[in-house]
């Protein structure tokens, strides 16, 4: 158990593991809140994030890094976490460039999406000519190596990128040639390598609901969900450029994927000439879908874009905000707070008598974690219902913490359970049980494990859900065994 002495109290914290759980969180957003003046702050009002791709080589450009740090609260490494960057020689991993971006972001309280682990493109030379079980094993080893390095640190990983053809069939590649199950093997490997991170499938041209590729990816996600293949999210790259534009059915696409029990995110947005109507429309579609957890644009200034000749981003080459910036900001500011969780159900059985409810050391306080980061893996401070941090909690020795009603548990990460949070130990261990000690602290059943505060974003608040996605639960102490 880690003791935090700053206030002479023990700190109790949880880690949120489901973006949906937090989408549905009870955000503290006063209805009279003033409009936010940055993209990240504006998105946060509805429990979302706003991100950008970051090129590590540009971080020394102060105009670039100033805008990036000011405006965004999520970043994706544009190239630095791809296979050719992270495993340049077989089984020789190099995280220098990826860590540069991770550390830049983490030190500023900005979260990071990992991009990408298994892709037909940007493979290191040694991998490109591999085939069969040799390649399959190399893919698995790569996922384990990279995810092991970033274990517990990232918000999400694009586990597999761009694996479909435009007609909805699988893209032919050396990875596909190892067997049609290569994608689910990648996801299963990823889940085991880092149970704390959201696992995403990421692709372009899957924004139009009636398009063949969209339908092909949808069927795969549907199949994975039905068979319990671990997958948490779908990234729609949203490159409205090079001839494609915002389809009228974009929101239908987002809500249809979400209905499969996954989060959706817009992961690489850019729009030819930064059309204000398209930028506003894609943003509105996201905020209209509760499980659309955030938007990432693919670069900071037009001059940073992979398609700079199309001026597709929100800042011009001089770092000035473009009209599209304002259109996005206005939509984000117009979004209401994230929906609150489902009402607390009436327990079917009364709680055991006595002090079985976990309450704060001050009378009447219950465990609550309002406000939120919506990002899996975010480590947060546990608050009481009055917004007090660093509370101690009433105890009963040799008891365990569990949910009040029925057989619900205080756990929920993993596939198939879309609306709950995982409590982690300080070592990043999921699925722990917890003892409440005689001094009011909570420790893991396994010796020495404590609840922890993940990341630097202490003060963010999240809702605790049960395994059935019920919010606003009360928790009680039950005897061990
Ligand atoms: O923006 C990236 C560019 O710097 C690289 O040269 C290119 C190489 O494939 O990848 C770009 O990012 C791509 C992303 O990783 C996946 N979706 C399409 C993006 C734009 O090509």
TrEMBL record:
Highest taxon, organism lineage: Bacteria
UniProt key word Hydrolase: yes
A Pfam family that the UniProt record links to this protein: Glyco_hydro_10
PROSITE patterns the record matches: GH10_2, RICIN_B_LECTIN
Keyword Repeat belongs to the record: no
Keywords carried by this UniProt record: Carbohydrate metabolism, Glycosidase, Hydrolase, Polysaccharide degradation, Signal, Xylan degradation
MF terms (GO), sorted A to Z: endo-1,4-beta-xylanase activity
Similarity field: Belongs to the glycosyl hydrolase 10 (cellulase F) family.
Protein name (Swiss-Prot/TrEMBL): Beta-xylanase
Organism for this UniProt entry: Micromonospora mirobrigensis
Taxonomic lineage of the native organism: Bacteria, Bacillati, Actinomycetota, Actinomycetes, Micromonosporales
């Amino acid at each position: 158990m880690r003791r935090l002495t700053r206030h002479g109290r023990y700190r109790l914290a949880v880690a949120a593991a489901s973006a949906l759980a937090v989408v549905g969180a009870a955000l503290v957003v006063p209805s009279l809140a003033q409009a936010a003046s940055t993209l990240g702050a504006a998105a946060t009002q509805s429990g979302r994030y706003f991100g950008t791709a970051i090129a590590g080589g540009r971080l020394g450009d102060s105009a670039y890094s100033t805008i990036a740090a000011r405006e965004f609260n999520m970043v994706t490494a544009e190239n630095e976490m791809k296979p050719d960057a992270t495993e340049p020689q077989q089984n020789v991993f190099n995280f220098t460039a990826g860590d540069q971006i991770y550390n830049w972001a983490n030190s500023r309280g900005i979260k990071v999406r990992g991009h990408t682990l298994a892709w037909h493109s940007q493979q290191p030379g040694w991998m490109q000519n591999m085939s069969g079980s040799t390649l399959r094993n190399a893919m698995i080893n790569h996922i384990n190596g990279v995810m092991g390095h970033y274990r517990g640190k990232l918000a999400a990983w694009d586990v597999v990128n761009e694996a479909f053809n435009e007609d909805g069939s699988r893209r032919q590649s050396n990875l596909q040639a190892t067997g049609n199950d290569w994608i689910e093997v990648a996801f299963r490997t990823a889940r085991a390598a880092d149970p704390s991170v959201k696992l995403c499938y990421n692709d372009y041209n899957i924004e139009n609901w009636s398009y063949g590729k969209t339908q092909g990816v949808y069927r795969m996600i549907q199949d994975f969900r039905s068979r319990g293949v671990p997958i948490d999210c779908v990234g729609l790259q949203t490159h409205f450029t090079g001839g494609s534009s915002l389809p009228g059915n974009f929101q239908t696409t987002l809500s249809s994927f979400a209905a499969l029990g996954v989060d959706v995110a817009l992961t690489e947005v850019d729009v030819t000439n930064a059309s204000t109507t398209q930028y506003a429309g894609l943003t509105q579609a996201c905020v209209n879908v509760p499980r659309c957890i955030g938007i990432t644009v693919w670069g900071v200034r037009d001059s940073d874009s992979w398609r700079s000749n199309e001026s597709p981003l929100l800042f011009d080459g001089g770092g000035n905000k473009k009209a599209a910036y304002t259109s996005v900001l206005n939509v984000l500011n117009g979004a209401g707070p994230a929906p609150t969780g489902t009402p607390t159900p009436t327990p079917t059985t009364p709680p055991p008598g006595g002090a079985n409810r976990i309450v704060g050391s001050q009378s009447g306080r219950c465990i609550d974690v309002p406000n939120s980061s919506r990002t899996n893996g975010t480590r947060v401070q546990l608050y009481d219902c009055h917004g007090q941090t660093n509370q101690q909690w009433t105890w009963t020795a040799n008891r365990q913490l569990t949910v009040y009603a029925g057989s619900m548990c205080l756990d929920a990460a993993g596939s198939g359970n879309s609306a709950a949070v995982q409590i982690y130990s300080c070592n990043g261990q999921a699925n722990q049980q917890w003892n409440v000690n005689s001094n009011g602290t909570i420790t893991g059943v396994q010796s020495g494990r404590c609840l922890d505060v993940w990341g630097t974003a202490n003060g963010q608040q999240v809702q605790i859900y049960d395994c059935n996605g019920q919010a606003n639960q009360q928790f009680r102490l039950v005897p061990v065994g």
